[in-house]
Amino acid sequence: MKVTVELENLDLVLLRRQKRTLVGRPSSPSRAADEEYEAVEGMINLLDHIQDFLVDSGQATEFEVFGPRDGDGRLDEDAEAILQEANKALHG
Q: What is the torsion angle, in degrees rounded to the nearest 10, for the CA atoms of residue 22, residue 26, residue 30 and residue 35?
């Protein structure tokens, strides 16, 4: 599925720094854990924003974005595993 996403209020400088932290290794071991945590947290927040936007804008359903849910609203791991395998079969 191809979607178009408009991202408003995205701090591109912060995003670049966080990506560099994920891709490279900081020179100071004492700062490494803090920088890596911040970078991962930032990327997760970006993904959350993209997912919410896709659903809110009607470009995808909650099921497509967040996967199958059980009666308690948690991810249905068995159904998700079936979907992942089917996706691998379709896309290699």
A: -30
Q: Which two tokens stand for residue 10?
A: 């995205």
State pTM to two decimals: 0.60
- For residue 4, give every residue at least 6 positions away whose Cβ sits within 8 Å of its Cβ, in sequence order, or none: 59
Looking at the structure, do residues 26 and 51 belong to the same domain, yes or no?
A: yes
3-state DSSP assignment of residue 8: coil
Whether residue 51 is found in the same domain as residue 78: no
pLDDT tens, 11-43? 666 757 767 676 665 555 566 677 777 888 888
The verdict on 73 and 56 lying in the same domain is no
- Do the beta carbons of residue 64 and residue 3 sit within 8 Å? no
* Tokens (6 digits) for 13: 């400088």
Cα distance between residue 50 and residue 83, in whole Å: 21
84 and 50: one domain?
Answer: no
Are residue 13 and residue 42 in the same domain, yes or no?
yes
Amino acid at 45: N
